[in-house]
Amino acid sequence: MSTDIQVNQEKLMELFGSVFNDVAGSMAIMMSYLGDQSGVYRAMDKIGPASVADIAKESEVDERYLLEWLSSNAGRGYVNYNAATEEFSLTPEQAAVFARENEPTCIQGLVQGVVGQFVKEDVAVDVFKTGRGRPWGEHHECCFCGTERFFRPAYAGHLLDEWIPAMTGVEEKLKKGAIVADIGCGLGTSSMLMAEQYPNSTIHAFDFHGPSIEEAKKRAIEKGLSNLEFFVSDAAEIPKNSYDLACIFDAWHDMGDPVGIAKSIKETLADDGTFMVVEPMALDGLENNITNNPSSSMFYGFGTLICVPASKAQPVGLGLGPQAGPKKLMELLSSAGFSNVELAAETTSNLVFQANN
Ligand SMILES: C[S@@+](CC[C@H](N)C(=O)[O-])C[C@H]1O[C@@H](n2cnc3c(N)ncnc32)[C@H](O)[C@@H]1O
Questions:
Q1: Residue 152 Cα, ligand 1 centroid: separation in angstroms?
Q2: 4 exposed, middle or buried (CB, 10 Å; 0-12, 13-18, 19+)?
Q3: For residue 43, how far is its CA from the centre of ligand 1 (angstroms)?
Q4: Of 4, 169, 303, 354, whose Cβ has the fewest other Cβ atoms within 10 Å?
Q5: Residue 136 has what DSSP assignment?
Q6: Torsion angle of alpha carbons 247, 194, 327, 128, nearest 10°?
Q7: What is the DSSP string of 241-253?
């Protein structure tokens, strides 16, 4: 074939090697998921260097399957193998990534989110080919808990200590006693963090996905939080309670009509209220983003499978995507009528905007 003449073998093998590595990585993700769901990583973290038989006993999994799984993990550098003792183990770093839920580096939520997409791959193909919307609730449940587990470390690490203090006058109000709306709250992690930190404030948390709200309610009851209430509600129908703070965490771009929703949120705010929008980290401009933002490929992937279809399933169906970038996001907030829009904070994972009347 004439096109073969133009193939540069070196570049071809480089691309092939890179994609082969991604495929091996996909298998490693599935191995990571098995280890998380079966509790093997946690068992290994608990007992230290051990034989396959001892790890199988501690984690109550089949010994032969476990040997194959451990070998795959060891080949990928996810666990260690000591040939002299024939024992497998986790380093502290491997434990922080695979075994320990509360470490900011725990990767298992992200793994769960990706695996959830493979589970319903036929739906993904149908959505992609037809261009139809795909409501949030049509995803496998791994999508909901994976999303929560993925975002939780960033919220736990930054929301109370950096993001809220970065916004003018907000922290003082929350300490004294403010009324807050957390919109598109999912399983309510951000709502619970605020309710715990600011007992004088009242948090109203809204999401239109009923099962997520049910789960969030259970979690809040377990924590004994009495200043937090959950509601099943579309973001466009938030009651006009003169909120001091309305916030949306990693969900504004999932909405069909982000500008229309920002306009209606503006009407629910007190005159001196603040609208806080937290979005995934992104840079301005496609070329800049794909070249200089190491997370962009992953987020465009989630955008293809989850965020753009979720938006297209709602009225207007703007399909903003999770990588719109700060300039575009600030333009949209201004076009909703907010006169003061600022990038208040940024971390490796998120952009935080503050919008005031
Ligand atoms: C990516 S999740 C983020 C959830 C949560 N804020 C978090 O950070 O863990 C997006 C959430 O937005 C919700 N959502 C999307 N569009 C919505 C709308 N129009 N009204 C209310 N909730 C919406 C979804 O149900 C989902 O729970």
A1: 14
A2: exposed
A3: 34
A4: 4
A5: G
A6: -70
A7: --EEEEEEES-GG
Over range 186-213, report the average pLDDT: 98
Question: Can you name the residues that pair with 203 across neighbouring β-strands?
Answer: 180, 228
Q: Rg of the chain's alpha carbons, rounded to an integer?
A: 23
pLDDT, position 142: 87
Q: What is the mean pLDDT of residues 166-193?
A: 98
Closest by CA to 98, choosing from 53, 146, 44, is 44
CA–centroid distance, residue 228 to ligand 1 (Å): 18
Q: What is the pLDDT of residues 275-310, one digit of tens each?
A: 999 999 999 999 999 999 999 999 999 999 999 999
Q: Which amino acid is at 286?
A: L
Q: Whose CA is nearest to atom 16 of ligand 1?
A: 255
Write the CB contacts of 112 (distance below 8 Å, at least 6 apart in sequence).
33, 36, 142, 145, 146, 149, 150
Residue ranges lining ligand 1, Cβ < 6 Å: 136, 147-148, 151, 184-186, 189, 207-209, 212, 234-235, 249-251, 254-255, 310, 314
- The angle that helices 258-268 and 326-335 make with each other, rounded to 10 degrees, is 50
Q: Which of 307, 349, 342, 344 is nearest to 327 (CA)?
A: 342
Average pLDDT over residues 138-143: 91
Q: Which atom of ligand 1 lies nearest, measured to the CA of 311? A: 16
CA 194, 103, 325, 185 dihedral sign is negative
Per the listing, tokens 């959830």 go with: 116
pTM of the predicted structure, to 2 decimals: 0.93
Cα 276 to Cα 343: distance, rounded to the nearest angstrom: 10
Q: Which domains does the chain have, with CATH numbers?
A: 2-99 (1.10.10.10), 114-356 (3.40.50.150)
Rounded Cα distance, 42 and 40, in Å: 5
Q: Is the pLDDT of residue 274 over 80?
A: yes
